[in-house]
Amino acid sequence: MTGGMEQRRHGLLWAHPGRDLPRPDGCLTFADGRIVAIDTAPYAGKERLIMPILVNAHDHGRGSRPLDFGAADSRLETWLWDLWKTPRTDVYLTHLLAFANMAASGVGAVVHNHLPQGPDMIAEARQVARAARDIGIDLAFVCPVIDRNLIGYDGGRAVLDALDESSAQRLRALTRLPPVEEQIAMVEAIAEQIEGEGTTVQYGPPGPQWLSPHGAALVGRAAERTGRRVHVHVLETWAQRRWMENHHPEGIHAYFEDAGLLGPRLAIAHGVWLNACERAALAAAGVALALNASSNLRLGSGIAEFGTLARDGLKMGLGMDGMALDDDSDMLREVRLAARLFAAAGQLDVKACEEAALQSAFSEGARLICGAPAPGLEPGAPASFVELSMEALSPLPPGSMMHVARLAVGRWRREAVTSVTVRGREIVRDGKVAGIDMERACRELAQQMQKGAMRDMDWIAIAQHAAAAGLEPSGAA
Fold it and tell me: Which of 203, 368, 409, 465 is 20 to 30 A from 140, alpha carbon to alpha carbon?
């Protein structure tokens, strides 16, 4: 063998969480970013659990979280207005912190749905990609494509009618959208700028209520031409379900099929209110779904029927959506929460739900990035793995490998992570993200948020006016 020097990691080796159990005295050998061998060798050091990286299958890269600037948890259609208050901050710094927080909890790859701060999305994409490279996580950059209903599912009529003419004109100007053709061209320009090892670009219609059938068809043709993946928010809330029934009663699967999008290149997020016909059609077409347990709880969207989704054959990943339950970007906690919520629905037993949540987080979530599940820890696979301190999980040594697995899923959290390696590069060492002073970066971002909030007070007043009038960007009757 030629190339870089071989390195080894010893411990309890969990090659395929959800499919097998950890093995004792494991030895993982890697070089040149790939796993060379998986062996058994005696180990006398402190016990650690070695497992594949986690995939955050749906997120928005929030270095500053909504609660920090007063966007309180509420129903999605109300909460979206509060997001207009987001202070403008340095794009690179914002995403550097977001990706660092993910990495600290074992995330090595993320599907990032970008929320532009300004008109130059190409420049923003370059900064986001640089942040991901500097932290060392793999990135699927999802570009929004929108042509309708940006300020309300009714076209914005209710909100505009509530504002004085000056505010309404300002709102129209702020929400004017370029033609879909230009947005698709921008996606391709972004891909030319940032794609490379560990970074891909996807089309990102944020939802059918925000992209017309004509616009969706243009995205479908572009995806067919380029082979690029498509990532769409789907039926997150009951208001969206009602809107779908009013505007596309044939169902979400028909909307995608008519646009030429229904197929294995398509990934969807949330899916809380999918009906039986839609679930079956999406599963048959090979569509993957990102579940977002924390976000759906915090925004009152509901709990996806995991057992039903699984039985219908949908492949599922897990995402934090920038809204982890404790606002800590802890993907390990997200896995635990998802497993418990799945079991609470009573459709599958606890063990089956744990196994399904593990497969979603460690393997199936990769489908939303590249169309195929992650291979786990096997010779020839990328050397991408997480190391957890068993001592941080329990003061007592586990009695069996089943005990190790149950202990991990029952207690793991970011504080237990000692090391994260992505394609052979150690990006977290001794629990610290390599190459970044987190405290300093947080202080700098906080200062920018204060200045940004002051600069944006005129727009915040408009958003608060609309909210005070009791208007929501739903328009669903």
Answer: 409
